[in-house]
Amino acid sequence: MVPKKALITGLTGQDGSYLAELLVTKGYQVFGLVRRSSSSNLGRITHLSDNIQILSGDLLDQSSLMDVITESQPDEIYNLASQSYVPLSWTQPALTAEYTALGVSRLLESIRRCKPNAKFYQASSSEVFGQPDESPQTERTAFRPRNPYGVAKAYAHWMTVNYRQKYNLYGCCGITYTHESPRRGTEFVFRKITHAAAQIKLGLANELRLGNLDARRDWCYAKDAVYGMWLMLQQEKPDDYIIASGKTYSVRELVECAFSCVGLNWQDYVSVDPAFYRPDEPVQLVGSIDKIKTQLGWQPQHTFEQMVELMVDYDLKKLSNSGA
Ligand code: GDP
Questions:
Q1: Residues of the chain under the 70 pLDDT cut
Q2: Which residue lies with its CA nearest to atom 24 of ligand 1?
Q3: pTM here?
Q4: What positions does the domain NAD(P)-binding occupy (predicted)?
Q5: How far does the centroid of ligand 1 lie from the alpha carbon of residue 163, in Å?
Q6: What is the whole-number distance in angstroms between the Cα of residue 241 and the centre of ligand 1?
Q7: Exposed, middle or buried, 170 (CB in 10 Å: 0-12/13-18/19+)?
Q8: 121 is catalytic
Q9: CA-to-CA separations, 261 to 194, 266, 311, 314, in angstroms, rounded
Q10: Between 20 and 30 A from 51 (CA), which of 22, 129, 182, 265?
Q11: Is the Cβ atom of 93 under 6 angstroms away from ligand 1?
């Protein structure tokens, strides 16, 4: 049987690397669109390098996208690339829009011209809801983005829906809520906390400064999320789905859980630093997973506590081995 071919943008990120692993296991021929850069950023995918073909291209450059699609002839295209750090979207709003919004127009146009029967997955984000009118949010909740990243993602979402309607492209948007893993950067609060708990346990640090402990998020595990993305492209008809855990936890609960994993009392180490406060905190972002559960049979395979534990364990092992 001829293997299916998939093209992933954002291959070197958390989701890209997990998705590539999943697709390689399923026998796909995997191509990754990677921006040329002078420093190597392939750290998350070195273990897959024999199974993935890297193609050079950039979401800022339409002709490079057309070349890559023509060369790889993918059956499935997953657009996971974006400038995804919300605070940076305020300091670089135009660049965020170039990648996260217009990059998707360029990609959709390239698909339409070069491989119109390819199936397309667009990584939408719960940030499109911003200050939502209702909680939990569903696929029908109005978009009210509150930062340049959310605005760019809303544009990309609607462009995908419009290409589906106008050109009959198979395009799906997965509205993912925050998803975490040991491959997440420590600038995000989940990994910041699990990593710090491990460091403190090993005597490598003695304090953790955090922002708003009452902020709540709907956190799910990145491996569960990428499985949902793949599932969306295996259907007869394209549609949009929320991928979330359906539950929220506060930063305080996260700290408590992470420190209890290493047998420490969090209050002895954590202090609140206004530098980490967000001026534009979303109200209550929590996704309803009724649609994806009923229609695709997807649901998270890891609980909040399991995620915390496996991430703390990962950092304990990694830090012990590195002798840092
Ligand atoms: P986001 O969902 O993309 O905004 O992911 P983050 O992990 O950066 O932030 C999650 C939540 O944690 C936000 O509501 C922050 O206000 C809150 N938070 C509290 N303390 C911190 C901190 O020290 N760093 C970060 N990044 N977030 C923090």
A1: 37-41, 280-283, 323-324
A2: 189
A3: 0.93
A4: 7-311
A5: 34
A6: 24
A7: buried
A8: no
A9: 9, 11, 10, 12
A10: 182
A11: no
